[in-house]
Structure formats: structure tokens, C-alpha cells
Amino acid sequence: MRITLGLDSTSLTRRYPRLAVLATLFMAFVAPLGLYIGALVFFPLNTPERLDAMAKQWLGFDLAASHYRHLVYAVFLLLVAFVAVNFTAVFGGVSTWVERRVAGRMQSRIGPNRTSAAGFLAWVADAVKMVLKEDTVPASADQLLFRGAPYFSMVGLLLPFVVMPFGESVVATNMNVGVFYIMAVTAFVVVGILISGWSSNSNWALFGAVRGAAQVISYEIPAGIALMVPVLMAGSLSMQDIVRAQGGMPWDWFVFRNPAAFVAFFISVTSSLAEGNRTPFDLPEAESELVAGYHAEYSGFRLAIFLMVEWANMWIMAGLAVTLFLGGWQVPFVASETYKAALGAGLVPTPSWFGLQALSMLVFSLKTWGLVIVFIWLRWTLPRVRVDQMMSLCWKYLVPGAFLCFVVTLLWQLLVPPLGNTVTGVVLSLVAFVLLAKFLLATYRNIGRVKGDRVDLTNW
Amino acid sequence: MSTDTTPDTTIDMNLDRHILRRTDGNDEEIVVNFGPQHPSTHGVINFVTQTNGEVIRRSVPEIGYLHRGLEKIGELVAYPGYMPFTDRIDYLAAMFANEGYAVAVERLLGIEAPLRAQYIRAISCELCRIASHFISIGTMAQDIGAATPLTHALRERESINDLLEELCGARLTYNFLRIGGVAFDVPVGWTDKVLRFLDHLESYIQEWDRLITFNKIFVKRLAGVGVITRDQAIDYGLVGPNLRGSGVKFDIRRDMPYGAYPNFEFNIPVGTGKVGTVGDCWDRFFVRVQEVVESSKIIRQAIAKLPEGDIQAKVARKLKPEVGEAVGQVESARGEMLYYIVSDGSEKAYRLRVRTGSFMAMGIIEELSHGIMVADLIAIIASLDVVAPEVDR
After folding, report:
1. pLDDT tens readout for residues B96-144
2. Predicted TM-score (pTM) of this structure
3. 3-state helix vs strand vs coil in chain A, percent to 5
4. Does B18 reach chain A within 8 Å, measured CB to CB?
5. Together in a domain, A238 and A206
6. In this complex, which of B20, B148, B220 lies closest to A381 when CB atoms are compared?
7. Does A173 lie in the same domain as A74?
8. What ipTM score was computed for the predicted complex, to two decimals?
């Protein structure tokens, strides 16, 4: 006899087939949309001045003079944090589904397709399963550190969202040292890796942790130097200022503005792949060597946190690259004055301002998703490098390369007139366009060679 | 850190081996058990590894977890009845285990299978070799960290499984060969399906080479790693692709011919050190990739020349060979598969001995393991194409 407790998704969806589609549509569109709307509302409006003004006008309460005003500000900040935390969870979950579907397609198999329409809810099922599982702590593990390690990784994942610009004004804080801040807080992830590996008291975990520490700390250097290139070009460390210094069209993006930035973009993406433990640099959790690496001993909710960090980190990696090199949220043909003009004088901005913000969020999200798909594509194509090769790539090629890009950018900024930037931008973006066209053509030919490729929608 | 790479005798791997402990006063070193349950041991084998961080001092394979007494069973059941057991010796290339046993018993009895049966044997065995090699090179790519080639290899192997299922009703443990013949004739239209598959296969191999064989990272990981010199390979008794990877042109099919093989033209690929040193892991990988193409050539010739006639020689119902002994060797996917049978004139073998390619490969792992990195050990194990049940029997 099957005991379903009324929660068995299989029997429920078998009885009500539309429920599966509805649940899928809800999780696929309504939940992320809710998060985006939450970000759109809370991120730009959550300043003390605006809260004071709102309290005065709507409630007739002079918040600025209140003793408890900081408490109120903190509550509203928690709302921002709630949106950001849920965003990482939902994005991490959805990206596992995307990854598995893309991998399935690359490997000529189907991938998850049983849980709801197109298997979309597989990530929810996975999350629920992991939360319900027993949280085991090995008897010989260091109890406190073992339990605490996932939270270090989690904090390292969540803190960058403070300065991640989702849209023109949709950013939790426009910190003036944004790039430094991101580089500093992402290092928390490696603390989590190191603690988890050490406290597990297992050979495999220790191997993974030491590999992870060596790798992440080494690649911080080329990543950091490569990130200084757009900082030099924008003349600011603030993420928003760096985006504002770029434009909507590809030739306005920093990646094409000078040849050194073009190289720096690839150095930065390679380094962030290594920092995010993605193939070809997935050494800390190399399945065929270390079984599971640093999280070999974890189970249940703590393992879920590690996995969520791994996947949601892709958003940080991709979002950072998009912000610094690929024009961020800049919408083509929409100048920064347009946003200001649409703001309006009222307490609540006009709907057209919200529309523009939503558009900029859409542009940022599309670019970021595109880069995330590239990361997934790389993961399922490339083999893994060896530890010494990973180190020599970092120290022999990427670090000097990043330094060179840094110096060339310095000289470029000093010696080349602004017109040179535009010319280089047009030329390089044309080159990129030609490469993209050649790639698409080659893909088309490859599909023709295997006599057609069909997206089969019947296997839901 | 100790740079001494000579094997020491202070560590007794047999005692207390599963307990993590420090070794010979060197606090830096730990003993790690790669196995018996590990993704890269390809079955249940334990590689007891003495390691200093990422650098391995010594790794000793501990075998026997899958010992099922298959040689003893051969002495307890009658000659025809042992055929299904041979499937279990090497479940990834069961056809060769069948063939080796059939050849040995036929030599013992002094009979020969009809020509048509020998051709069908060659076709089915070469299909099985392609399937086995795809598993081998696919899992090797997986062990190097690339997940996609394995699923592509499994997809191609699936077609072979379908073909062999149509031929003999089984997909893994075929039990297809009989003493003095084969169990079934080829079904109508089956050879055309095989030819269609080979057309696809030969074009797919080019895609495979683009996907993984010449991938920069893959070549970097394997070139010059786990080099087995020509002399070492011969000294350690390596067989099959492992031997040929070291540049030794030896193939039972050509040098000690059996069955229909003298009638076929085929090349014997050997390691050339194309991207590194002769006898490195990449050479062994590439030898297998080339052997897939050669097997495809052999199947084409066999289908073109497939003669008419019986598929089973006249064999007595109760087999009672005369007192004596016989050896049957075939070139399995993992090298020489040798059956040595001693008959005391009864219905059952007096002694049955099986020698397999994977078992021969286990000996050299300790020799290669001094001073390599952990990831290299995985590459070496994968490149030797170790299949645990074949090691232990």
C-alpha cells in the first residue's frame, strides 16, 4: 500500500493533469516575477529619506524625529534582504533545471521530464527532498565547524547582491567601492569550503578543501586585476557608475572599447569559472577523483546550501561580467536623462519610470542568463584540468596577462583620444558579430550533417 | 616532504589497511583507500594509496572483492554448461569470453566450427569489441572530467546492444557461442542493419575525435602521463591495447590466428607518441579509438564474404574429451583472453584456468604510481581499461 499523505505530486497530478501545468507556470513565471517586482519596488525606494517622506505624507508620522526610526529602516532593509535571498534560492533552483535540460540535450538524452510540465519542478522536488533528509554529522567531525561551514559559503554568496545592479535604479546600495566589496565578500565562499573540508575529518573532503583554497585564492589575483580594467575605463569603483559609463549598443560596452579590455574580459570570465568551481576547474569536487570533494560528508539541508551556493554563484559570476564588461542594464537608445525625466516629482515615481526600470532589469537578466548558458555549455563540453595545470595557467598566463591588460588600458586611457575608443568599439563588435555569425552557421551545418535536429515537445 | 620514491617496506598494506593512520613517522603522509567503492575504480577494486598531498608515493591495487570462483565452477559443471558462466567473467565483452572458452574446448576435442559459424563469431565479437571500447574510452573521458563523451559512447553502444539482442536475445551476457558453432543463425536483414550502423559509426568517430580525442585539455591531461615503455609492457605481461599502446605490434588475431581472422585484412594500431611519449595514457586511448575503426572494417569484410552453410558442427551430446590439455586464446577487447583446460577424460574439466587482460594490467599500477599526482592515477587506471570482474573472476 502506498502512503501518500495527500502530498504525493504524482498521484495529485495524475488526478488533475492541469494542476501540473498550473504549478509549473506558477513556479516558472509567477514566483520569479514576484521576486523581480519585489526588487523593483523595494530596491530603489528603500532609502531613509523616502521612507521619512512616505511616513509623513501617508501616515502623518514624523519618522525622522522618532527614536525608533533605525528600527523601521532595518525592517525595510530586511525586506530587501528577503527578496535577495529568495532570488538566489529561486535562481539557483531554476538554473539546476536549465543545466540538466541543456546537458540532456547536449548528451542526446531527455533530462528531467517527469515532475510537472517539462520536469520544471524537479528542482523544487530536489530542494524539498534535501530539506526533509536527515542532517547527519559524522561522529569524528568537528561538530561546531562542521555545522557552521555552509553558512560561510552562504554569506559569501548573498553579500554580493548588495551591490549587484539589476537595473538603472534597482540596486540595494550603490556603494562607492562596489568592485572591491564584491572581491572581498566572495572570498567568504572559500572560507566555507576550507572549514567544511577540514572539519569533516575525511581524506576526500580535506583534499577538496585544500584544492579549493589553493584554487580560489590563486584565481582571485588575475580576476581582481582584470576587474580593474573596467574600473580604469570608468574611473570609478561603483558598479552603477561603471554601467553608466557604458552604453546600450555593443560598441559602447567596455569589452569592445579597447583590445586590452577584450582580453581582460576572457581572463575575468576564466578566473570566475575557477572561483566558482565550474568545469574545467571543478577540482575541489572532482567527482571522478575525490568522489564529492569538500562536501563529501554533508547531507540534507547543509548539502542543499552548498549546492545552492554552487549554482547561484553562476549568477554572481555572470552578473559581474555583464555589469563590468557587457554594458550591464543599459538599454539601447535609452539615455540616462530619460530615466530622470520619467521619475516625476511625486513621492512614488511614475509608471513609465517603473516600466523603464523593468526594461533595464530585463536587459540585464537576459545578458546574464546568456552568459550562464555559456557556463553550462562549457561545463558539459570540457574535461577537467589537473591541479598543477590549473596553478600554472593561473600564475604563468592569467596573472601576467591581466597585468599586461591593466598597463595597456592605462596607456590607452592616456594616449588614445575618445574617437579611438569608438572606432575600436565598432571594429571589435563587428569582429564579435562575424564570429557569432560563423558560429551559428557552423551549428546550422552540424545540425544538417546529422540530418536535422528537432526539439521534441512530446516527452513532457 | 619526502622526495624518495622508492617503495619502502615499513608500511604493511595488508594489516590495518582501512584505518586512516600516519605512516613511518612521516606526518605529512596519509593512506587513502581509492575504493572499493569509488567512481573511478570501474568496479570493486581498492587502490591503497600512500599519498603526500596531491603527490602519490605509492599505490597498491587490492583485488579480490569480486572473486566468484568462476574457475572452480568450470571444474564442477559439464563442458557445455559452463558457457553462460563465461559471460560473467567480463560482462562488457562477454562475446570474447564465450569465444575463448569455445576455442579452447574445440581444440581439446579436436573439432572445428563450420566456416559460417566462424564468420558469425567474428562479426558478433567485433561488434562486441566496438561496444566494449566505447565504454572504455567513454569512461576514460568521464574520469578526466568530461561528462558528455560517455553518454555519446553509451548511445552508440546502445545500437550495438540492439543488434546483438536481435542476434542472440541478450544485451549483455550473450551466451551466444556454442562449442563447435553458434546458437543462432543471423536473422533476415540483420547484416543490412549492421552495415547501416557501421556507416553511421564511421562518420561518428570523426565527431568523437573533435569532441574529445584532440581536445586541448584532454591531450594535456594524458600526454606523457603514465608512460609504459616497450620493455616494461612486455616485462609486466601487458596484453591487448595496453601492450599495443606502448608500440608493440602484437595481436592474437594476426599472430596466433583463430577462427575466421586469417581471411580478413586489417591494421593493428599501435601507440606512436603522437602528442607525447610512446606508451602514455593518450596512446592507449587512441589505440582503442583506432581499433573501433579497424573492427568496423573487419565486420564489413565478414559480411561481404559471409559463406552459406551450417552454423553448428556435429558434437556429441555428452562431451568427453580425451585425457589431455588445451589452450584457447582470443584477442578480447582487453587483450589476450586465455583459457587453459586440463581434461581427465570425464564430462567436466579437471582444471580450468582463465587469464584475462585486466588482471595483467593490475600489476603495473604500483610501478607507475611513484611520484604521480592523484588525478594521474585515475587517468592511468582508466587508460588500462580495468574491469573489476575480469580481474577477480
Report:
1. 999 999 999 998 888 888 999 999 999 999 999 999 999 999 999 988 8
2. 0.83
3. 75, 0, 25
4. no
5. yes
6. B148
7. no
8. 0.78
